[in-house]
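Open question from group meeting: does this chain pack into something compact, or does most of it stay loose? Before anyone orders reagents, we agreed to write out a predicted structure and look at it together. Recording both the input and the output here so the notebook holds the full record.
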Amino acid sequence: MTFDPSIFSSFFTIAASFGTAFIVALWVSLVVWTYRDIRSRSKDPLIRILSVLVAAVLFLPGVVVYYVLRPSHTIEEEYQKVLEEEALLQTIESKPICPGCGRVVQENWMVCPGCHTVLKKKCMVCGQLMELPWKVCPYCGKTAPDAKSEEVKTIEL
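Structure tokens returned:
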């Protein structure tokens, strides 16, 4: 049995062809992945082009460089974060809190039911609720007399 070197040569050629095809497929897939990833992370067209070029020209080191320098969050994640912050701010701002005990109180309460702190006062002219520091009623426009001491007496009864 003799060893034919042409079989070894054809095997090496086939293996090299498959290896080259794998490398080319890997290169194309990394360039496409980079394009899709940067598209979800940035709206700037220059950054998109540069990211794809770095991945295309430098191949594996380029993808590593892109991965290190890319924005950490996608546009969608940033948008969701902003929405969550706005929702939290709205919930904080929309619920009045008693200055005495820190409990959540209703807008139309005159007194906190937990600690009996006076929250609002009534206008002596029109009867609408007013904030304690207000000197003029925003509903009727009349100057409010100092009714704080009278309200405390009526509430305590």
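Observations to bring back to the group:
The two ends are 119 Å apart (CA to CA).
The chain has two domains: 5-75, 96-157.
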